[in-house]
Amino acid sequence: MGVAVRVIPCLDVDAGRVVKGVNFADLRDAGDPVEMAAVYDAEGADELTFLDVTASSGERATMLDVVRRTAEQVFIPLTVGGGVRTPEDIDTLLRAGADKVSINTAAIARPELLGECARRFGSQCIVLSVDARRVQDGPPTASGFEVTTHGGRRGTGIDAVEWAARGQELGVGEILLNSMDADGTRAGFDIEMIEQVRKVVDVPVIASGGAGKVDDFLPAVRAGADAVLAASVFHFGTLRISEVKNGLRAGAVEVR
Amino acid sequence: MRDSSAFHGAHVPRSVITCGGAGSERASRCGAAAGPVYPCRVSRIVVLDYGSGNLRSAERALRRVGADVTVTADADLAVEADGLVVPGVGAFAACMTGLRSVGGPRIIERRLAGGRPVLGICVGMQVLFDRGVEWGEETDGCGQWPGTVERLKADVLPHMGWNTVRAPEASVLFAGLPADTRFYFVHSFGVRRWELEESDVLRPPLVTWAHHGEDFVAAVENGALAATQFHPEKSGDAGAAVLSNWLRDVVG
């Protein structure tokens, strides 16, 4: 037996409220991220991820309160991302109760941030979040994938696979790989992207983007993902975490 | 699983009750809200605050299983508490520096000299060994156990996620937990060889192993000194059961 493949639900949180609703019968308030976190925990989530999509910086304090209240009640690892720009942001989130913090855009602007944070807080709590897509009209990258910003709308021309490798070099402990092409399509993960990143990093890779049905998860794990993350299929109750785990188990993948 | 019979004992209920003997001067009412209420002695636990990260997680998890928890670097409080928890995340060298700055090694030694329980978690376990080697740099640890903390040989590091362990039959920490119970690990370094020689006169520590790429030490139970490489405070109900076992049967 070895380490289990993790199934991670992601909650998009805007000004302290879950963006997308869900249909669990036993839920009093589907918009409360703390209550949702407890439900996912009870359903067998291996970790939780909160993505802060709050537009206005004035409401950032709300997220800290959400993190604090979640950590009081939920005793599994919690990753928080969205709008993380400085070591101080990370310090504040970790003190509030986050176990890991994911960095995205700020690292594209200044890659050294990753190294500074890994040294200060430890690699284990720094996740590099890579929003990647196949290059469309810009100059081609070696891998054919590029890093994007602004929710996948803006290409950077940076090779996404090289960027993941660079993140590992700088000391991040994990790569959260989001396929912006697959995101929202529910047509399955971008298997080629996972394979390419797996080849160049030996930190854990979390595959994200495109999950639509139980059968989508096994190919992502076979392509090398150590963890699988999904948001909407869990939010809307299309899939339960236990169903995803049963599907993986049927494919001889170890799950918790 | 080498020791399929490793786990035994009573079923641990989902809401863990941690009461020790009745009738202490600090007797109070505790237990699960919906279940029976027992008079019991609440253990005073200090989580040693030496600047390492996961203090609040440890504090919350211990409180969840009924302990009276103080997070402090105060040496007197740390020596006098019923139980001391030494957490730790990040680099071995940084943790040792932090630990030394609050007199941690001395606090641990004074407690152990009096048979008072200490629980190390993650790097808080690693620093109990002789030395750590990270990126070619060797750092002295607390030296409570012989052995070296070094980088694991595995395809994917950090070892991050839920893994099983192989506990010896007499284990107190894992009593009552099924053999396939998983705990949350996050580390790249570990103790790959248990170097303590067997002795005819000393009771050997109980060593629990886990596997990621290779075998490494997942927990040690050695009289008053216990430690886990995984994070019980992040291991859900399974972790709560381990902390509860420690509180009830080691701290008492």
Automatic annotation (TrEMBL), chain A:
Q: Where in the cell is it found?
A: Cytoplasm
InterPro entries the UniProt entry points to: Aldolase_TIM (IPR013785), His_biosynth (IPR006062), HisF (IPR004651), IGPS_HisA/HisF (IPR050064), RibuloseP-bd_barrel (IPR011060)
Q: What class of enzyme is it?
A: lyase
Q: Which UniProt keywords apply?
A: Amino-acid biosynthesis, Cytoplasm, Histidine biosynthesis, Isomerase, Lyase
Which pathway does it operate in? Amino-acid biosynthesis; L-histidine biosynthesis; L-histidine from 5-phospho-alpha-D-ribose 1-diphosphate: step 5/9
Q: Which GO biological process entries does UniProt record here?
A: L-histidine biosynthetic process
Q: Indicate whether rRNA-binding appears among the record's keywords.
A: no
Coiled coil spans:
none
- Provide the catalytic activity annotation: 5-[(5-phospho-1-deoxy-D-ribulos-1-ylimino)methylamino]-1-(5-phospho-beta-D-ribosyl)imidazole-4-carboxamide + L-glutamine = D-erythro-1-(imidazol-4-yl)glycerol 3-phosphate + 5-amino-1-(5-phospho-beta-D-ribosyl)imidazole-4-carboxamide + L-glutamate + H(+)
Q: Name one GO molecular function term.
A: lyase activity
One Gene Ontology CC term in the entry:
cytoplasm
The residues responsible for catalysis, as annotated, are 12, 131
- Enzyme Commission number: 4.3.2.10
Domain of life the protein comes from = Bacteria
Recorded hits in PANTHER family, A to Z, give: IMIDAZOLE GLYCEROL PHOSPHATE SYNTHASE HISHF, IMIDAZOLE GLYCEROL PHOSPHATE SYNTHASE SUBUNIT HISF/H IGP SYNTHASE SUBUNIT HISF/H
How it assembles, according to the record, is: Heterodimer of HisH and HisF.
| Functional summary from the UniProt entry | IGPS catalyzes the conversion of PRFAR and glutamine to IGP, AICAR and glutamate. The HisF subunit catalyzes the cyclization activity that produces IGP and AICAR from PRFAR using the ammonia provided by the HisH subunit.
Q: Which HAMAP family does this one have?
A: HisF
Q: Which family does it belong to?
A: Belongs to the HisA/HisF family.
Q: What is the recorded name of this protein?
A: Imidazole glycerol phosphate synthase subunit HisF
Native species of this protein?
A: Pseudonocardia dioxanivorans (strain ATCC 55486 / DSM 44775 / JCM 13855 / CB1190)
Q: Which gene encodes it?
A: hisF
From TrEMBL, chain B:
Instruction: Describe the reaction catalysed, as an equation.
Output: 5-[(5-phospho-1-deoxy-D-ribulos-1-ylimino)methylamino]-1-(5-phospho-beta-D-ribosyl)imidazole-4-carboxamide + L-glutamine = D-erythro-1-(imidazol-4-yl)glycerol 3-phosphate + 5-amino-1-(5-phospho-beta-D-ribosyl)imidazole-4-carboxamide + L-glutamate + H(+); L-glutamine + H2O = L-glutamate + NH4(+)
Compartments (UniProt record): Cytoplasm
Q: What EC number is given for this enzyme? A: 4.3.2.10, 3.5.1.2
One cellular component term (GO) for this entry is: cytoplasm
Q: Biological process GO annotation list?
A: L-histidine biosynthetic process
The keyword tRNA processing is assigned to this record: no
The UniProt entry, under InterPro entries, shows: Class_I_gatase-like (IPR029062), GATASE (IPR017926), Imidazole-glycPsynth_HisH (IPR010139)
Q: Where is the active site?
A: 122, 231, 233
Q: Does the keyword Protease apply?
A: no
In what residue span(s) does the Glutamine amidotransferase domain sit?
A: 46-247
The GO terms this record gives for MF are:
glutaminase activity; imidazoleglycerol-phosphate synthase activity; lyase activity
Its keywords, alphabetically, are:
Amino-acid biosynthesis, Cytoplasm, Glutamine amidotransferase, Histidine biosynthesis, Hydrolase, Lyase
Quick one: which pathway? Amino-acid biosynthesis; L-histidine biosynthesis; L-histidine from 5-phospho-alpha-D-ribose 1-diphosphate: step 5/9
List the NCBIfam families.
IMP_synth_hisH (TIGR01855)
Output the HAMAP family linked to this UniProt entry. Answer: HisH (MF_00278)
Q: What does this protein do?
A: IGPS catalyzes the conversion of PRFAR and glutamine to IGP, AICAR and glutamate. The HisH subunit catalyzes the hydrolysis of glutamine to glutamate and ammonia as part of the synthesis of IGP and AICAR. The resulting ammonia molecule is channeled to the active site of HisF.
Subunit and interaction comment: Heterodimer of HisH and HisF.
User: What is the protein's given name?
Assistant: Imidazole glycerol phosphate synthase subunit HisH
Q: What is the lineage of its organism?
A: Bacteria, Bacillati, Actinomycetota, Actinomycetes, Pseudonocardiales
Task: Name the gene behind this protein.
Answer: hisH
